[in-house]
Each structure stands twice: as structure tokens, then as C-alpha cells.
Amino acid sequence: MLEQFFPDALSDSIYDIDFKKLYHMGYRGVLFDIDNTLTEHGAPATASVIHFFENLRTIGFTTCLVSNNKAPRILPFAKEVNSYYVCDAKKPRKRGYLAGIEKMGIKKKETLMVGDQIFTDIWGARRLGIYSILVQPINKKEEIQIVLKRIPEKWILHQYRKRGQMFTAKAKVCGLIANPIGHSMSIALHDCFNREMGEDIIYVPLQVKEDLKTAILGAYSLGIHGMNVTIPYKQDVMKYLIDIDEEARRIGAVNTLVRANGGYIGKNSDLPGLLMLLEMEGISLQNQDVVLLGAGGAAKAAAYLACQEGAKSLTIVNRSRLAAEMLKTELLSYFPEFSIAVCTLGDVEEKINQYLPHRGYLAIQATSVGMYPNSEDCIVSNPQFFEKCDVGVDIVYIPEETTFIKNFKLRGKKVCNGLGMLVYQGAISWQWWTGKILSKETKEKAMETLQKILNQRMNREE
């Protein structure tokens, strides 16, 4: 019910709205309220307002003044700013907005509405599905009928902010590049961070099905502040960055893009995120025989971490022996004395005692196998594998218990999923974008929020 009064964005004034960004997003026309939006009530257009409209035309926007005032007030103002106009619009009725759109010769989806009143400007725009921006009134001294409207407006804005919809027209945009993307929890995670910290950041899904290079260049042109990158682009994206930090270069995969002059810098928060998860779960890599399942982006971070944290040995198990051998070669260039073996998943199924001769392994499942909706899949079917491993880590977190995790629990062994890793690596990315530190309490609250969302989602699917 209340949502019909919520603006799509907030701004202190018309001068704080990034109209160039909005033009790049496909908007071509702007409907403006006049009094207390563009100028004080009853005042003529100022030089700054006239210049403002000139700039809008330079960007490519068409404009129309949509006011509930009569012609004697509107016509002189419209002439000064050289704009279309609709008098006696009777906002929030639809006809005034539609008349303005018709005059501008554009479509509803290309239209913006900018005004200072919720019950006229914003409500009318919402009724038509027009993107609306609420600005602060220029002069707080208003007519009594407007003052009375401001009282419920304040309550509505309080509810708006309470629900986390606090974005202004200056909001920074961050996002997640992936394919597929439908079940990712990153959007909910970053919404939680931004809400708790009061950051004016919008985090959006960016599904890229093809032409990754064009997507990266387009994101930079659109002013996107930062991005996470996940399956299947953690390695491919490296070709399109202006720089890669040393740890990400060593790992050979990037999961975070930080905006810089001329493009993005690639970083990797998977490694520290996984380390924080292991520490939280009381799992140490030191002097452990580690079995790593997978050789992709997340697996590379896990492999590098095992070497860095002093594991006794590392066995890389992958469908493709070539990919596993390549990862081994990369690791040995940084850790030449480290004990690294390679085998295929087929070897584990058929010759496990030859390739995993001991017991007490720590297994890290670093592929997407078992992720919803393929929750019954398990990367290893040989029951001997789970007998030989004492501890398991599965980076998949949807569902909460994969078949891989169930196999460990069935044998009473320690195991955890990847939800903590998601939260910790996300927190590190957020800190790179904002320069701020997230508290332990904020991260714990994010974990609880995501777990609740996951439980609700899985209950709906059952």
C-alpha cells in the first residue's frame, strides 16, 4: 500500500541529480513540477534555472512543466526556460502526465518526473509507472494546505528509509557480473551492508550472457562504481582490466573490480574470505593434507591459500587433468618446494587408494556442483572419499546442506558450507569500494539475514 507513495530516488535539489547517467540509462524526457522544485513558490525562473534547462537540452533531454497552477503562472515560466508545459494538470491524476509525455513525443518508459511533493508529483508518477525523483522543497515556508500535507509525508519518508530504500540521485551503483545469476545472494548481502551502514549505494544484478569486454567497457561508461565477478568470468575478465593487484595476479582469478581512472582494477577477495570462514569454523590448514575439488576461479584462491597457510600437501582433483596440471604449475612458480599432486575425478572414483593413500584429509569442494536447482548432484560418489576425509568445506551455500555436506554429516564429521565465505568476501569487496570497515556485528547480522532468506526460499521450493 505505502509503496505507491515511495519515490524511486531522493535528491537534495535538481542540481544534484545526475542527468547524464539517467540519459545513458535510456531516459529522454523530464516532467517538472515548478513551485518549490525549480524555484520558490510564485517566483520567476532564476538565471541558474534557465542555465539548468539549457544543460538538459545539451545532454539530449526534452522537458515539460506539469503544474496544478493556472496559465498566468505557467506560461511566463515556460517561456523563460524554453519548455513544453501543461497547466491545471490536477496531479496526481494521470491526464496531466500523459499530456506532457505526448507533447515531448516520447514513451512512458523514457520519462522522468521530478517534484517536491509526495501526494501529487510522486503519487501521480507511480500510478503511471514513471520513474520519480523527490527533491527537497526549496523554501520550507509554505501555504497552510501544503504544510499539512508535509506531516504525513514525513511519516511516509520515514517508512521509506526504514525499508532500506534510501537512495538519492547521487547514489553509486555497484553490481554482480555472472551467468546465470538468478539464485545469487550477493544482492541481498550488499543491500544489508548498505542499509546497516547508511551508504547511498545501489547493488544490482548484471547478467552477461556474451561479449564480456563490451559489458566491462559499458559499465565504466555508465559510471558503475564497482563490481563483483563470479561464475564463469573470474579468469576471462582479467583481459579487460587496466591493472590487477599482486595477490589476484598470483591466484590467477579476479572476483572484485574497483573503479579507477580509465577502467577497473582487479582484486580477489575469495582468498581472505575463505580464510575468515575457516577461522570462524575453527579449521586450520597448517600441516593438513588438503584435497581440492576443482581448478577454476574459487579453487585457485583455495589452492593458493593452502600453500600460503602451510598445508602439508595439496591434491588437486578435477574433471580435466590439463586444468589441474596448469594450476599446479602456477602454484609451483610461487611455492617451488610445496608438495602438489594431481588427479581426475575418475581417478578418485576408480583408484582412490592410489591417489589418496592416507586418511585425515581436509576436503575443499570449490565448484558449483550441488548448487540449487541441481541439489542432488555430488562431485564425488565414491563413499571411500568421505571415509578418508576428516573435514569438509563446500563453497556452495544454496541449499544449506548439499549432498556433499550430507555425506560428511552422515559420518559425524566436521563440515561447513560457503555462506560465511560469501559474507566475508563480500564484506572485503564492500570495504574496497567504500574505504570503510564493517563491524563484526554488521557481518553477523548479514549472515542471519541471508540464512533467513535462504530458508524461506527453500521452503517455497519444497
Descriptive overview:
The chain is an alpha/beta fold. It has three domains: 2-162, Rossmann fold, CATH 3.40.50.1000; 172-268 and 441-450, Leucine Dehydrogenase, chain A, domain 1 (Rossmann fold, 3-Layer(aba) Sandwich), CATH 3.40.50.10860; 282-417, 3-Layer(aba) Sandwich (Rossmann fold), CATH 3.40.50.720. Helices cover 43% and strands 18% of the residues. It contains 18 helices and 18 strands. It has helices at 19-24, 47-59, 71-81, 94-104, 118-128, 144-162, 186-197, 212-221, 246-251, 270-281, 297-308, 321-334, 345-350, 352-355, 383-388, 403-410, 419-434, 440-461, and strands at residues 9-11, 29-32, 62-66, 84-86, 111-115, 131-135, 172-178, 201-207, 226-229, 243-244, 256-260, 263-267, 289-293, 313-318, 340-344, 361-365, 389-394, 414-416. It has a six-stranded parallel sheet, with helices on both faces. Helix 16 (403-410) links the parallel strand 17 (389-394) and strand 18 (414-416). Helix 7 (186-197) packs across helix 17, helix 10 (270-281) crosses helix 11 and helix 17 packs across helix 18 (440-461). The longest helix has 22 residues, at 440-461. It is elongated and about 90 Å long.
